[in-house]
Amino acid sequence: NSALGGGTVPLRGSGHPASSGPSRATYSPSLRRRGGASGQSGSNMQPPRGPPQGGGRGPSPPFSPLDLRVFRHMAVQMVGHPMEPGIMQRISETDPEFLRQAAATALPMFGSFPRGLQQHMVQSGMDIMEQMVANVPAEPATDEAIRTLLGKKVVVCGVSQKPELNGCVGTAERVSPTNRVRIQVKLPDGRSIALKADNLRIALPLDLLPPAEAVAAALAEDVEDPVVLADVLRRFENSKSVDDEQASQLRAKQAERQRVVNLARVTLARDDPRGIPTSPELREELRISLMSALKQAAAAKLKPSELLPASRKLLDLLELRLDPASAAADLRDAIELSRSAVPLMSCCCPDLTRQLDRHCTAHQSSP
């Protein structure tokens, strides 16, 4: 067998042939990875249970990867249970110093112990390992918004405590090692700052242009996002460039786009506290209001996440109208209304929109 494969090998210096592997032993977790709650590093190995020890401990050899492989084979031979693939690597990464001490302590003693005690020691060692792996904190999942930004050129935006950073272009290098909801961003001047994903956006081609050229590009390309326009203007102003007509035009455009976005948000939030009315008339009034607000928000190019609550409420209203007991003409109207709302909502809740679309198809095909 290869060094990392399954199967068994004779123990070094044990004098025992390789075993075909008895049935899996039952673990009795009596050994713990750490001593008490002190959190201090080092081994807390207790004397093994069972028969008294025979023979003394030899000099501790230096720890090497071979020790890991041999210990794994000993576990297979004595317990008949190969460790999970990768378990040794996980243990080594978790607490290499503890494993080094455990291996250096256990391996020299094996050859001089009776077979029953050897089996007991393997069980105890696996017991320790299982404790170590069980105590490894789960790696927190990296947020989708963070994964989208990593490795890309980004623009800092919406930072209130250090507004001078807004508009700066940098590189999203990695998740912050001290705070996993933040990203380490390297700035052109060599500084590295940790920011939340909400304070970063992926840089557009115009963000990488010199400030004056970026102003001209923002006007020529008809950029509508007020945040992008504000970032372009901020870079222009920070560069101490001479103000000109194009910069004035961009300021006016940014102010108008911000007004449109703010109005769309206010309109969208107007119906947010309202629940679903019981009266059909009030439901229809709410549906009309939500449809109008969503169209305005979509035209203002609000983020899909901002449209989601109103879209879900509209979806509930439309499904309530799809009542099979309704008159044929009313049901046709409800289906038509629902179909017209599908493109509007598809950008923020595609799963629910597909559900509504299937619902409409089912009612349309029913007699």
Which secondary structure elements does this structure contain, and how are they paired or packed?
Layout: H1 65-79, H2 87-94, H3 96-110, H4 115-134, H5 144-149, E1 153-156, E2 169-175, E3 182-186, E4 192-196, E5 200-202, H6 211-220, H7 226-238, H8 245-270, H9 280-299, H10 304-321, H11 328-345, H12 350-365
Antiparallel strand pairs: 1-2, 1-5, 2-3, 3-4
Helix pairs in contact: 1-4, 6-7, 6-8, 7-8, 8-9, 9-10, 10-11, 10-12, 11-12
Describe what is shown at a glance:
This protein is of the alpha+beta class and 367 residues long.
Key attributes of the depicted protein:
367 residues; alpha+beta; SH3 type barrels; 50% helix; flat; disordered N terminus
Count of separate DSSP helical elements: 12
Q: What sort of overall outline do the alpha carbons produce when their principal axes are compared?
A: flat
End-to-end C-alpha gap: 69 Å
Low-confidence stretches: 1-66, 78-85
Total number of strands: 5
The major beta sheet can be summarized as: 5 strands, antiparallel
Strand order of the largest sheet: 4-3-2-1-5
What helical percentage do the residues reach? 40-55%
Number of domains: 4
% residues in beta strands = 5-15%
Q: Output the helix-strand order.
A: HHHHHEEEEEHHHHHHH
Rg computed from alpha carbons, rounded to a whole number of angstroms: 33 Å
What's the rounded overall pLDDT mean? 68
Helix/strand/pairing class, anyone?
A: alpha+beta
